[in-house]
Design a protein that fits this description.
mainly alpha, 140 residues, 4 helices
Amino acid sequence: MSEFIDAAFGLPAIVLTSALVAVVGFWLLVLCRVIAHDAFDTDVDTEALGFGDAPVAPVGTFFLAVAWTLDLSGMVLLGRAGLPGLWSFLLSVVLLAGALAVSWRLTRWLVGRVRKRSSVFPRARRRGAAPGRRPARPAA
């Protein structure tokens, strides 16, 4: 257990641990109905980030949870490797960047799959399409 705690609160994993604590606090406030679940939807343009019209809170939560899990797993394995201090720190920084990159790609892939399979996220309309009507599919 101490290995897990050392990895979670060690440098640089503390960055993702503190962000995950903030996310858990946000969802607790949503459960207590203090704030709305879409409170950040107007602040962030998810379409510019590559997520389309997906809501910010669930996408951000998934992104952080996956990045934290990957980074923490890598930190535990790195701690077991027993490398000297400087090499361990440099590899942990590379591990943090890699966990963020993999989490970003996985989150974009999952949002795309959910958008294709269900009506949870609104689909982007083509230019000139009337609101409320589905645009016609082009002939094959």
